[in-house]
Design goal:
Number of domains: 1
Structural class: mainly alpha
Strand content: 5-15%
Oligomer: single chain
Helix content: 55-70%
Number of helices: 5
Shape: elongated
Radius of gyration: 15 Å
Order of helices and strands: HHHEEHH
Mean pLDDT: 88
Number of strands: 2
Distance between the termini: 35 Å
Length: about 110
């Protein structure tokens, strides 16, 4: 399944490394990653709850990246739909809900 990327993240990371404690950045990444996981689980359509339970989080890049992804093999079909079924987005809405607050919290750290 394809992921989401926030454009300009490299510039933000350089400024953060220059202007603030990376421990604080890692806390923000972990917090918002956890929030995104929770929202994706809430938005996932529930037929058997398998999809909801499969949405996991991994922290990567030394704590600077949170990856939220479902492990259910049919997850992309639910998110994007097929020619036989309507899409039922759960990751994109969760991401769109979370990204603004994440950016705001990073900007606060940059001072």
């Amino acid at each position: 399944m394809s992921g989401f990327k926030i454009n300009g993240l490299e510039d933000i990371q350089r400024k953060l490394k220059k202007n603030c404690d990376l421990g604080d950045v890692k806390k923000v990444v972990r917090h918002h990653g956890s929030q995104l996981q929770t929202k994706a689980q809430e938005y996932a359509p529930v037929a058997s709850s398998n999809l909801k339970r499969s949405i996991g989080i991994t922290i990567e890049d030394g704590g600077m990246e949170a990856r939220i992804a479902p492990s259910a093999d049919y997850a992309p079909y639910v998110e994007y739909g097929t020619r036989f079924m309507e899409n039922q987005p759960y990751l994109r809405p969760a991401f769109n809900d979370q990204k603004g607050q994440f950016k705001d919290d990073l900007k606060k750290l940059m001072g």
